[in-house]
Amino acid sequence: MSRVAVLGCGVAGTVVANRLVRARRRVEVTVIDGHGDHIYQAGLIDVAFGVRTSESLRRDARPLLDPLVRLVVDKVEGIDPAARRIDLASGARLEYDVAVIATGSRNDRGGIEGISEGSRTFHCPRQADELARELAAFGGGRIVVGATRLPYRCPPSPVEFALRLDAKLRGAGRPNGSRITYVYPIEQLQPNPAIGGWARALLVERGIEIRAPFQIERIEPGAKRLVSSTGEELPFDLAVLVPPHRGASFLDSSGLAAGNGWVKADPRTLRAGDGLYCLGDAADLPASKSGAAARYQAAAVAANVLAEIEGRTPSPDYAGRAT
Ligand SMILES: Cc1cc2nc3c(=O)[nH]c(=O)nc-3n(C[C@H](O)[C@H](O)[C@H](O)COP(=O)(O)OP(=O)(O)OC[C@H]3O[C@@H](n4cnc5c(N)ncnc54)[C@H](O)[C@@H]3O)c2cc1C
User: Fold this and answer.
1) Per-residue pLDDT tens over the stretch 241-276
2) What's the gap in Å between 156 CA and the centre of ligand 1?
3) Alpha-helix runs per DSSP H in 140-245
4) Could you tell me which residues come within 8 angstroms of residue 97 by beta carbon, excluding any fewer than 6 positions away?
5) Cα distance between residue 117 and residue 120, in whole Å
6) Alpha helices in 207-281 (DSSP H)
7) Half-sphere exposure of 142 (CA within 13 A, CB side)
8) Which of 145, 152, 153 to mutate to test the pocket of ligand 1 (most atoms within 8 A of CB)?
9) CA of 177 to the centre of ligand 1 (A)
10) What does the alpha-carbon distance between residue 265 and residue 97 come to, in Å, rounded to a whole number?
11) Start-end of H helices in 137-215
12) 100 CA distance to ligand 1 centroid (A)?
C-alpha cells in the first residue's frame, strides 16, 4: 500500500484526496490540516457587504472528504523531502511515499508598514466581518480599493469589490460625495491583460478613479494617506486593500519555497521534486491563485500521483486551465 500525505484540506487538497481514494488503487491517503475546517473564501466579499457572516462560510472538512480519507487535524511544521517525513506541531511524525503540498496562501500584513492599522481587507474572515460594520457606518469621503502586491488570491476580487461598493454607494445616494479610487501595483488593472482591459472599461464607465501603477510603500494611519514607492501620496477616508500574500511559513523553513514564499512546481506535471507535488495557491505557477485553477490542477496531480506510485511517468497534461 503506498502512503500519500496531502497537506491542507482547502479546495486543492480536498479534490486531490477524494480523487485518489476514488480511483480504487492500493493507496492510503492522509490529509493533514491545521484546523480541519473548509472555508469558502469566495463568500468573503458577501461578508464584507453584510450579506452573510464569516462563520457561515466555515464547514467541517470531514463530510467533504471521502470516508476512505484519513484526516489528521494538526499543523505541519516541517517537511523533509529527502527522508520523506513530515513533522507536526503535536510532535507526531508522518512518513510518506508521495506528498502533495496544498497549504494555500496567507496574508502577510507585516509586508507593508502601517497596513494593519491603516487599512481594512476582505481577504480574511475576521477582517471581513469588521469591514461590514465599518461600511455600514461609513459617513462619506474617498474609499481607496485595490491590491498591494502580486500575486494574491482571486485576481479579480478587488475589481469585484470596487463594483459592488460603487453599486452600494449609488444606492445610498453617495453619502457626502463618496467616491472610489482603485489602486493597483501594475499599470494593467489585472494580471491577465484581457481581464485588465475589461476591468478598466467598467471602472471608467462607473466614474471610479484609477491610480495604476501605484505600488504602496507604506500607509500612514494617522494622516490617512497611502505613499507609493515613487513618493506619490493618496489621501483616503477608508482604505480596503488586498494585503501581500505568502505561502505557509514551514515552506520557507523547510527550504522548499523560493525566495517569494511559493513552491516551484513544474507547470505541466505540477511535480515539485522526488515524491513531491504542489498545487493551488501554494504553488509558484503561471496560473491564477483561484479555487477554479486549484480544482483543475487537482485532477492533474491525482492522476500523476497514481502514475508515480504505479511506476509510470507523470503526464505533462496540465495546461494552465482556470475559469
Ligand atoms: C475574497 C476572496 C474571493 C475569492 N473568490 C474566488 C472566486 O470567485 N473563484 C475562485 O476560483 N477562487 C476564489 N478565491 C480564491 C480561492 O479561495 C483560493 O484560491 C483557493 O481556496 C485555493 O485553494 P487551496 O486549496 O490552494 O488553498 P486553501 O483553500 O486556502 O486551503 C489551504 C488549507 O491548508 C491549510 N494549511 C495551511 N497551512 C497549514 C499548515 N502549516 N499545516 C496544516 N494545514 C495548513 C489551511 O488550514 C487550509 O485549510 C477567492 C479568495 C478570496 C480571499
Assistant:
1) 999 999 999 999 999 998 889 999 999 999 999 999
2) 15
3) 157-171, 193-205
4) 2, 3, 4, 84, 275, 309
5) 8
6) 249-253
7) 15
8) 153
9) 36
10) 18
11) 157-171, 193-205
12) 15
Q: How many helices (H) and strands (E) does the chain have?
A: 8, 22
Check for a shared fold between 2-105+247-309 and 109-245.
yes
**CB of 31 closer than 6 A to ligand 1?**
no
CATH code, residues 109-245: 3.50.50.60
Task: Give domain limits for the chain.
Answer: 2-105+247-309, 109-245
Residues sharing a CB contact under 8 Å with residue 92, sequence separation 6 or more, in sequence order: 72, 74
Task: Report the nearest atom of ligand 1 relative to the CA of 280.
Answer: 26
Indicate the pTM of the whole model. Answer: 0.97
Whole-angstrom Cα distance, residue 118 to residue 281? Answer: 26
Topology of domain 2-105+247-309, CATH: FAD/NAD(P)-binding domain (3.50.50)
For cell 515552506, the residue is 251
Write out pLDDT tens, residues 157-184: 999 999 999 999 999 999 899 999 999 9
- How many angstroms separate the CA atoms of 191 and 214, rounded? 14
